[in-house]
């Protein structure tokens, strides 16, 4: 089943934001955002048909025999009973075939609208949407070192994401603004995404009430009618692996699904701790969990958008530390993509994962391993695609721009290989002949500007120039780019009336409750 | 056609080295080398059948219409004429179908023997052999900075390669020993590979005479009979792209092919300079060049082992600098693999390519992009798989061990996914159940030691420990590993008689000619 709004986002004419916003926009500075990646290359499929069938059969067995726990959520248990599951205490055992049948009403792709219609994204199919890091309590940069994140840091990351050409999405909790009370943070975070950027964003999931606030703020931004008919948020619903669905996350899911807003249903797995140490065992549990979660979203509202999520990392059995960019995580990322496609669901996985404490070689090897596998595994929504450091404890400014730059390679790779007459270049080969060179030939002159992807951060200078200029490493080059981008930043235009209404909403909400840091 | 020696290398009982060497070996310290990678995962195939057919047809057209130049090599021209080509001056035009027909006698895989039979490698098929960086005139490490390479550096790299578990091959010119006369370097380099390591190695290609010396030294090391019947060297024959075969490289190829020794026939291409700026145009030229080169090796001796080589990088059109780890290079690496498999030839490409001046994040992103694409493109022989820096001008000690460690991820990835009962882990999922954890369960206890690949260089420590220990980045951690490995090094045993003969050979050769630094 496909969302009716699955026409190319680029072709849409926006209803969100209204005429005033569009007029204001024309007078503002804008930063280029590349279209969503559409793959013209095949996916890598590492798992055989036989292995996939084993996993699918075992996942059904897990759901029927072991079941899943819906904790502190009597209404959910009631819904499951009505849907045909066997409920025993908080344990929900789902007869074989039932979860998959319930999942079948979820759309295979959907459009998440941005307030700037040109930046709406299609999630699913051959598309890949890139979103920044999510969740770190710390930030780090070369100057300030590692420290607790603040709202000011949050604003900076939203600005950087807005200005990053290869990033399609503003994300959600790009870092935790720890200087704002826990029960009010979501208001400031949403305000930042709505006003400092015009890219699509995520809603709050830390409490059903905050999910409801997210919806209400979107009703101000997009108009209540628009939000009723369209998906304007994609939010991250983590499963408490193994096989446990807690009342907070499920409460948020219930709000979003009921409002036809998208949820990423995502097991959060450190292999060996929250799942078996084997790839097939982990994939079995992932599939069982995702099927139960997506099925539940469809019980709430058939047809509401849900994404097959997989966050998996391995563990260093010496230290117990989670490890990233490893071959085991790559295999799980790849196999989960195959499973997601067989279910006809959009797929979320991979990201700029690394365990390193610095944006150094370790960080980059681990990150590149994960980004490449994400592209080749058919990921449709890549959260954490830039800025992740130290196992997700830290959002790193320099790594953010380094990763965001690398995302350009995914765009170029996915474009595949053209084979028209110009691409064949036979005239160039004739013109140059044995022993010649191509720099000056007509074909090169006609094509060189678009022929090769080029980093905007890396050093391509001769050694001597590089040395004279201070022999800067990637971190130093990236720090300079962060400073430049933040100094160039200008906000996208927004109808002042809408902005005033959002500000009033946030002020009222904040005034309505005491601060809480719990 | 397949080399008769294509039985698994691990099963062979060695004739090379003799009984004395084997006895000596038992008393020596040995370092573990992982078996050659055998892929249990599918290759990524980015190019469509249609695009491949266009490239193949165009390459035949290039050979017939434009042809290739064999420079300063009248004997080669005579051979081509006899084989059916149209020779006009130094231009060799090859009628459609002829080059491919000549190539068909080259084996699809072959065994390159090491003096330690357990380290012989199969090149071709589903196998991947990893060899270190080749050719840099400079070396670099954190302590000494960037400097001209010496024989002492060369020795250190051979030792590091010998001790690297994931590296199968000792390589060739791991760096240029610039303190040794050009006309005598090859003797010292071969001596180092033969005595400091027991892994397979490459021969000299800088002059046909030096290729002959390489053969003669192998006759001492392996025995003349053994060398007559077996392939004991794989050497790098670069094509002078576009479409030019110079007399030095062809002279070396002639020596090696005549002795049934393997050659990598490899276009050396900076896209936009030595080939068209488009992927399909470059692949067309690569295929034409490789077909001409491999065909020539088969004219010299039908059945001699030849590898389809592809060294391709893109160019930064702003600065003219070659750039590495780019999507365009990835596509060419991938497409050339498809073309090589369609010819039934072993394939060489990819490596630890980067343009960075330091082993920093840039170096690692670029390298990881290339290593991953190499694995997924069906590469059979990966030269430069570790240690490459600054566009190949520098062999870097820290990057060598960082890359060599990352090669472990390729091993694990290629192993694919097991789906037997143990891998399914259903008992573990039952045992743990919703809300439990896997760390202590029976399945984890039985499998954790082999479940996850683990870096031997990266930092996996908690932040506080890492900070107390000096907050070291990857470069610093790698520098410590280099020092440790070199201090632990012990040479593999070698029959003292053979060693003495090699020393005498080298001394005689050196005495027979004046030093030349040209």
TrEMBL record, chains A, B:
Keywords: Methyltransferase, Transferase
UniProt EC number: 2.1.1.-
Keyword Magnesium included in the entry's annotation: no
GO MF terms held by the record: methyltransferase activity
Region described as Disordered: spans on this chain: 1-30
Gene3D superfamilies: Trimethylamine methyltransferase-like
Zinc in keyword set: no
GO annotation, biological process: methanogenesis; methylation
Similarity remark: Belongs to the trimethylamine methyltransferase family.
Protein name: Methyltransferase
Organism: Pseudooctadecabacter jejudonensis
Lineage per the UniProt record: Bacteria, Pseudomonadati, Pseudomonadota, Alphaproteobacteria, Rhodobacterales
């Amino acid at each position: 089943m496909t969302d009716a709004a699955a026409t190319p986002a680029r072709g849409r004419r926006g209803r969100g934001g209204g005429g005033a916003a569009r007029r204001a926009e024309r007078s503002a500075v804008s930063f280029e955002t590349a279209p969503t990646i559409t793959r013209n290359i095949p996916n890598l499929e590492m798992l055989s048909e036989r292995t996939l069938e084993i996993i699918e059969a075992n996942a059904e067995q897990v759901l029927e025999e072991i079941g899943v726990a819906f904790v502190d959520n009597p209404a959910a248990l009631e819904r499951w009973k009505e849907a045909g599951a066997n409920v025993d205490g908080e344990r929900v055992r789902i007869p074989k075939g039932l979860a998959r049948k319930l999942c079948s009403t979820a759309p295979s792709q959907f459009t998440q609208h941005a307030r700037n219609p040109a930046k709406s994204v299609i999630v699913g199919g051959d598309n890949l949407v890139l979103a920044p890091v999510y969740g770190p309590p710390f930030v780090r940069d070369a100057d300030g070192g590692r420290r607790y994140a603040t709202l000011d840091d949050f604003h900076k990351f939203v600005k950087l994401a807005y200005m990053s050409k290869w990033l399609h999405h503003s994300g959600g909790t790009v870092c935790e603004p720890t200087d704002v009370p826990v029960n009010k943070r979501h208001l400031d975070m949403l305000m930042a995404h709505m006003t400092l950027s015009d890219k699509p964003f995520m809603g709050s999931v830390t409490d059903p009430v905050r999910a409801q606030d997210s919806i209400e703020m979107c009703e101000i931004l997009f108009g209540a009618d628009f939000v009723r008919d369209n998906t304007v948020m994609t939010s991250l619903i983590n499963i408490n692996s193994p096989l446990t669905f807690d009342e907070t996350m499920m409460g948020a899911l219930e709000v979003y699904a009921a409002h036809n807003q998208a949820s990423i249903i995502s097991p959060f797995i450190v292999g060996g701790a929250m799942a078996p140490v084997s790839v097939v065992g982990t994939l079995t549990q992932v599939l069982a969990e995702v099927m139960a979660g997506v099925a539940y979203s469809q019980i709430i509202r058939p047809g509401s958008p849900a994404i097959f999520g997989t966050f998996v990392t391995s563990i260093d059995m010496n230290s117990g530390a989670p490890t990233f960019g490893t071959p085991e995580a790559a295999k799980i990322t790849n196999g989960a993509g195959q499973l997601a496609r067989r279910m006809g669901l959009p797929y979320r996985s991979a990201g700029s994962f690394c365990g390193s404490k610095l944006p150094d070689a370790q960080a980059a090897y681990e990150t590149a391993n994960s980004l490449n596998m994400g592209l080749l595994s058919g990921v449709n929504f890549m959260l954490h695609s830039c800025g992740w450091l130290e196992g997700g404890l830290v959002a790193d400014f320099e790594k953010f721009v380094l990763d965001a730059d690398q995302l350009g390679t995914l765009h170029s790779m996915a474009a595949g290989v053209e084979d028209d007459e110009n691409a064949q270049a036979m005239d160039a080969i004739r013109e140059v002949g044995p022993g010649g060179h191509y720099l000056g030939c007509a074909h090169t002159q006609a094509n060189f500007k678009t022929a090769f992807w080029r980093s905007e951060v890396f050093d391509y200078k001769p050694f001597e120039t590089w040395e004279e200029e201070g022999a800067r490493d990637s971190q130093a080059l990236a720090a300079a780019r962060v400073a430049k981008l933040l100094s160039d930043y200008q906000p996208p235009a927004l109808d002042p009336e809408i902005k005033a209404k959002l500000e009033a909403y946030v002020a009222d909400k904040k005034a309505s409750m005491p601060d809480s840091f719990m």
